[in-house]
Design brief:
Shape: globular
CATH superfamily of the largest domain: P-loop containing nucleotide triphosphate hydrolases
Strand order of the largest sheet: 2-3-4-1-5
Order of helices and strands: HHEHHEHHEHEHEHHHHHHHHH
CATH architecture of the largest domain: 3-Layer(aba) Sandwich
Structural class: alpha/beta
Bound molecules: zinc ion
Strand content: 5-15%
Helix content: 40-55%
Radius of gyration: 22 Å
Oligomer: single chain
Number of helices: 17
């Protein structure tokens, strides 16, 4: 970690900005900075790529850059604008996130009116947490759609005269959720994008760009965010969370470029995570009323309290079956993700000699993506349990 390393990442860093904790994505950042320097900022961007790689954080940082009063190629971190961005509270930045609908509201009501007081408090806490750690996900339980009122509210705001100089930046997180319900939110946004307001940019951010309607996607400049390199993630865990080197390496490897997941893992007891995974595997693969009930209940309660954690458990299960497939096919020299669990994995593979593990990985992906779209959880899980049984015993198809 010599001086040159610091200089190298200097392009991404401002002075003392909280968003300095973003890692990787230097190439994308440079591209955005160059666009800004050459006055080539477009009215709509679509940031897409896998989970936890810094898409939202870079969007916030970009919004900060174009509003920084110093006007340089990095955020100065000291002006009044940067100070507001540090708290994610700047009049020129609007964050649109999926929200639950605690109560019915009228057409022209602000979206906050749909929320109970508890929900508003939880939302404020999540925004504060995101200001501290840009990898934090602002996702409230039962928030499966971007409310049309959020789009209507922003429409009012962007055609108003700016309160501050600079550029209005509208960031839409989980933008694929514009499409849920009757799609009216997507339509409302499309109308705005068709007549782009001056000095305004929209940044749509999603892990699932294919779910967005083509008419929106085609109006945006697309920016793909790749997974963050394992070595960069490991180094970050050591520096920011004081994770011991060996463990950091293992976790980074496990997280596959997903920084959010890496941080989540680093804050947990790795042995507990492994035990949790073993329980999930047992519930899923040993058919008994008790096991299946355990899995369904675990999924339902985790989904209610923290959908991100359920997502993460599905990811772990995918790794398990992916590793099982590798061991089954490659025998001795399998390169597995769940390094510490090789013994249990080999035992598992022996137990299911004809198992179609690749098919199960696919089932898990479909299931996880259905849950993020608010399909009936019990139905989705029940189908998964049956499909896994068939694929374990080679009776599928
Ligand atoms: Zn500044």
């Amino acid at each position: 970690m010599g001086k040159s390393r610091e200089v190298e990442s200097g392009a991404l860093a401002g002075q003392g900005m909280i968003l300095d904790t973003l890692i990787g994505q230097e190439k994308i950042w440079k591209r955005l900075v160059t666009a800004y320097e050459n006055d080539h900022i477009t009215g709509a961007y679509l940031f897409h790529g896998p989970s936890g790689v810094g898409k939202e954080g870079i969007a916030i940082r970009f919004a900060g850059l174009v509003n920084c009063k110093a006007g340089g190629s990095a955020l100065c971190g000291e002006c009044s604008s940067c100070a507001k961005f540090n708290r994610l509270q700047h009049p020129n930045m609007t964050l649109i996130v999926p929200l639950p609908k605690d109560r019915d509201i009228k057409k022209n009501d602000p979206p906050a009116k749909a929320l109970k007081d508890d929900t508003i408090t939880a939302l404020a806490e999540l925004i504060a947490a995101k200001a501290d750690d840009p990898y934090t996900k602002i996702r409230l339980p039962r928030s499966n759609t971007i409310l049309i009122n959020s789009i209507r509210e922003v429409r009012e705001k962007i055609y108003l005269k700016a309160m501050e100089t600079g550029r209005k930046m509208v960031l839409i997180f989980d933008a694929d959720l514009l499409m849920t319900g009757d799609g009216s939110s997507a339509n409302a946004l499309l109308k705005i994008l068709e007549e782009p307001p001056p000095e305004t940019s929209f940044i749509l951010i999603t892990d699932f760009p294919e779910r967005l309607v083509e008419t929106i996607g085609s109006r945006c400049q697309q920016v793909f965010f790749p997974p963050v390199q394992t070595e960069i993630v490991a180094k970050h865990l050591q520096e920011s969370l004081a994770t011991p080197a060996e463990e950091a390496k293992l976790i980074a490897h496990l997280a596959q470029g997903n920084v959010r997941m890496a941080k989540h893992l680093a804050k947990q007891d790795l042995e507990e995570v492994q035990n949790q995974l073993l329980s999930l595997v047992k519930w899923l693969t040993k058919p008994s009323e008790n096991n299946w009930r355990s899995f369904t209940q675990h999924a339902a309660s985790t989904y209610r309290t923290n959908p991100q954690v359920l997502n993460f458990h599905f990811q772990l299960l995918s790794y398990w079956f992916r590793d099982a497939q590798f061991i089954q096919k490659m025998n001795g020299e399998a390169h597995i993700i769940l390094e510490g669990m090789e013994y249990s994995l080999r035992k598992f593979v022996k137990h299911f000699p004809v198992g179609d593990f690749a098919a199960i990985v696919k089932e898990l992906e479909t299931c996880s993506s259905s849950l993020s779209r608010n399909y009936n959880l019990n139905l989705v899980i029940t189908n998964l349990l049956f499909d896994i049984q068939e694929n374990l015993h080679g009776t599928a198809g």
